[in-house]
From TrEMBL:
One of its GO terms (molecular function) is O-methyltransferase activity. Keywords: Methyltransferase, S-adenosyl-L-methionine, Transferase. InterPro entries: SAM-dependent_MTases_sf, SAM_O-MeTrfase. The keyword Protease does not apply. It holds the Pfam family Methyltransf_3. This is Catechol O-methyltransferase.
Length: 244
């Protein structure tokens, strides 16, 4: 039973610290990278993803999108057919890796506030053979404009250049960070925005905004699913198409 696993209880106990540091505090993130390097075939994205899932199921639960919700992300990526992707919340690099697999010609940029997580993700991306097309930018969109400026000035984000946005970081920042991207005009007609964990832990302001904008700025589908790596807690993934 998933809730009987020590790593689940350890995660719940460590959540206040996780919100500050981006890591659970027991070394599971670095252990995941080491496990991938020791057990997954180098250069094989499928095997690296499967190995991360194995680690999360059998060793320590991870705070990434996971395999069940990952399939929803894969489908959204296929619908977007992106050339440029932005992910908010790298953690161990799993979401960006799924995106890189589903869109092999895309450039993927992932924003992560914890430098230690960025190091873990880069190790995993390198092992999977996608380090040349997935970039981690350490920062947050709420840091007074520094990270937004870096994305624009150093990584070529311009008006209408963003095809897919995947939001999976601080739930309280979902709406404000989306608004920052809208203010910059980076989305174009048909761009897709995917948001994880909208029910658990929950992003109620974001969900309400998408409901208010239905048929106006966005067309949104709410995908019913489960919290990563278990089947007891229901969750929602929102997929929203920008109307421009």
């Amino acid at each position: 039973m998933p809730f009987l696993r020590w790593s689940i209880w350890r995660l719940a106990w460590a959540m206040p610290g996780f919100l500050k540091t981006g890591q659970i505090g027991d070394g599971r993130e670095a252990a995941c990278a080491a496990y991938v390097e020791a057990n997954a075939r180098r250069g094989d994205i499928d095997d690296v993803l499967a190995t991360i899932d194995e680690f999360a199921y059998e060793r320590s639960m991870l705070m990434n999108v996971g395999d069940e919700k990952g399939a929803l992300l894969d489908a959204a990526v296929s619908r977007a057919d992106p050339a440029r992707v932005l992910e908010l919340g790298t953690y161990c690099g799993y979401g960006a890796l799924r995106i890189a697999r589903a869109a092999p010609s895309a450039r993927v940029y992932s924003v992560e506030f914890a430098a230690a997580n960025a190091d873990v993700a880069r190790r995993i991306w390198s092992h999977a053979g996608v380090g040349d097309r997935v970039t981690c930018v350490v920062g947050t969109l709420g840091d007074g404009g520094r990270t937004l400026a870096a994305l624009a000035d150093e990584h070529g984000f311009t008006r209408g250049s963003l095809d897919l946005l995947f939001i999976d970081h601080d739930k309280n920042a979902y709406l404000s960070d989306l608004q920052s991207i809208l203010d910059r005009g980076w989305l174009h007609d048909g761009s897709i925005v995917v948001a994880d964990n909208v029910k658990v832990p929950g992003a109620p302001k974001y969900r309400q905004y998408m409901r208010e904008q239905q048929g106006k700025l966005f067309d949104t589908v709410e995908h019913k699913t489960h919290v990563e790596y278990q089947t007891l807690l229901a969750d929602l993934v929102l997929e929203s198409r920008y109307r421009g």
